[in-house]
C-alpha cells in the first residue's frame, strides 16, 4: 500500500521576521501524527506570490496532503486566495453561505456595519470545495491537483483548529489509509546525551527498522523517544512497549518519568503520591519556577506558594535571612539559600522548599562571583542540601536552566537520592 504523508505551508512575513511564532504547524503535526499521517515537510514563506507558488509546486504530486495556513484576510497583503485561483484555475465567486455568515457576525455579534472589504471574505475560487468556517469569517478551501489534496485555512489559530477538527481530520480518516504511528517518551536527568547513548547502545542496535529512537536533550535533561509506524496496530503497540520497557529498566538510575511530561509535573505527581507539599523562594528567577508549577491544573494540591525575594531586605524581613549572613557571604551564597529554604518552610508551612539566588547577567558579576553563578538549596524540616552551578547562557536561558536545576535538586531530595 502506498505510504501517505503530509506537508505544511505557513504563509506570512510576520513568521519570517520573528514577530509571530508559528504554533499552527506544531499543533497540526501533532494532530496528523495521532491519525497515522506523518509530516515530511514544513515550510514558511512570506507574502510573496512567487515564493508561495514555488512552495505549492514543490509539494504538488509529492505529498498526499498539503495544509496551508495564512494569507486569507481582507487586506491587501493577504494574497493567498487570488493566487490559489490562478494556481488551480477558475475565477473568484461569492460563496453565499459564507457571505450570510459574515453579515450575521458583523451585524448581530460584533454590532457594527459590515463593509465591502469584509464581504470579500466570502469570495472563493470556483475550483475549490468550500469548508464552512463557523469560527470566523474566512472559509477553508479544498483543491486537488496531480493526486495531491490541498487545503487552505486561515492563520488565526482558533479558526484553523476549528476547520481541522470539523472538516480536515474527519476527511483524513475517511479518505486516506494512514496506518498507525505511536510514540513513547521517557525523561532522564543527571546524565548527558553521549553517556546515555553509550548506556543504551545495545538496546538501540536491537531496534527493528520501523522503530526509531530520538535523543532530545534540553537544560541538563534528556528525553528518549521511541517512534513506531506501520499498518499492524497490535504489533506496533506490543513491540513498542517491549522495547520501551527495556529502555526504562536500563535508565532507571536517571529516570524522572516514563512518559512525556515536564519535570515540574513529575515532581507534582511525586509529591501527591507521598501526600506532601512544596513552596519556593526565588531571587534570580523572579517567580519563573512558580510559573512553571502553576501552569498545570491541579498544582494547588501540592504547591503552596512562593516568595520572590529579589531584594535583600525582602530576604531579611520575609524569609528571616540574617543580616550578618548577607553581610559576610552576600546574597549569592550557600548560607543565604539555606536560610531562604528554612525561612520559606517556616513562613509558608510546606513540607519541602527550594530556594535560588544567582547572577543571571548580562552584568552584575564580579571576579569572585561571575555572571552565571547560581546557588540552589532544597530542604525539609530534617535536611537541607545546597549546590552551586556555573551557567554560561544569556539572561533568559540562565533563568530557565536555574529553574530546571532547582526542581531536579528538589526531586533528588524527595527521593532521598541527594
TrEMBL record:
Annotated SMART domains: MoCF_biosynth
Residues annotated as transmembrane: none
Domain MoaB/Mog positions: 7-175
Top-level taxonomic group: Bacteria
Xref: InterPro entries: CinA (IPR050101), CinA-like_C (IPR036653), CinA_C (IPR008136), CinA_KH (IPR041424), Competence-induced_CinA (IPR008135), MoaB/Mog-like_dom_sf (IPR036425), MoaB/Mog_dom (IPR001453)
Family: Belongs to the CinA family.
Protein name: CinA-like protein
Organism of provenance: Sediminibacterium ginsengisoli
Source lineage: Bacteria, Pseudomonadati, Bacteroidota, Chitinophagia, Chitinophagales
